[in-house]
Design a protein that fits this description.
Length: about 270
């Protein structure tokens, strides 16, 4: 404890010792000796499932290396399937296909470099759409089949709405000048598209990015001075979703549900 430890110091010019009581002592650790980065092994391995999340941190394998190294990685997979942090050596991999994949990581500082080769074994698994069906007790349905709520299973997947629930709508509160999206999902991205003029001039429609969905968020109505306000909401998969290419192949890159609000009245616009 501070104030209770007694330290003895030897005087260089005379014999004997002097003792003093001190309240506290700060000991600064010595800086590590500069060294070349070194991994505990030149190879490593992990495993996962198709369309699953695989994480691996190369810095955990480092046994030497001062100053702290930076990391680079090369891999024979699409850059859209993984993210990598060059400061920590953290790898996030979401494989589209089953198989064996190799990532080569190099840790380097001003004194040298070390290499570790990671082998990732990926077994088959559900696609994101198939997993979504399973999570909603709807396995076996095809994208174009109509769900109990009257919309296709694919549209429900894009909107992340349970196939038995009411589909995507906008609720307006003219008194507070806000709107909400009750079925908004935090796993989807939303855009508000609005206008005060329903003429055929498409340029009159304006867009407001809303980011990830929040069913409780009160979104300010962009224009509360006009007699009428018309809005629609666009919902999309996150940009990193592996189903975006499938969306393009099916000819739909997003899902739009249009609603009209004339200060208290709401109706679908064809």
């Amino acid at each position: 404890k501070a104030g209770e430890n007694v330290f003895s110091f030897l005087n260089d010019t005379q014999s004997g010792t002097d003792s003093i009581s001190i309240d506290s002592v700060w000991l600064e650790p010595a800086a590590p000796e500069p060294s070349v980065p070194e991994f505990t092994s030149a190879t490593s391995a992990t495993e996962g499932v198709q369309n699953g999340n695989i994480e691996f941190t190369f810095s955990y394998l480092l046994s030497a290396g001062y100053p702290a190294p930076t990391y680079t990685i090369t891999a024979a997979v699409s850059t859209g399937e993984y993210d990598f942090d060059g400061d920590t050596g953290y790898l996030y991999f979401q494989p589209v296909n089953a198989g064996t994949f190799t990532f080569t990581c190099v840790a380097s500082n001003e004194y040298g470099a070390a290499t570790n080769t990671l082998t990732v074994t990926v077994t088959g698994g559900n696609s994101p759409f198939e997993q979504w069906l399973a999570d909603h007790d709807a396995s076996g349905h095809t994208p174009d089949q109509v769900a109990p709520n009257g919309h296709t299973y694919w549209d429900n997947y894009i909107a992340d709405i349970d196939p038995g629930d009411m589909f995507l709508t906008i609720k307006l509160d003219p008194a507070s000048g806000t709107l909400t999206i009750p079925a908004a999902s935090p796993n989807r991205i939303y855009t508000l598209i609005w206008t005060t003029d329903l003429s055929t001039d498409k340029d009159k429609w304006k867009e407001v990015s809303l980011g990830s969905g929040n069913p409780d968020a009160k979104i300010p109505i962009p224009d509360t001075t006009a007699k009428s306000f018309f809005a629609r909401v666009r919902v999309e998969l996150p940009s990193e979703s592996k189903d975006r290419s499938l969306l393009e192949r099916k000819g739909r890159s997003l899902l739009t549900q249009v609603r009209q609000a004339d200060w208290g009245q709401a109706a679908e616009i064809p």
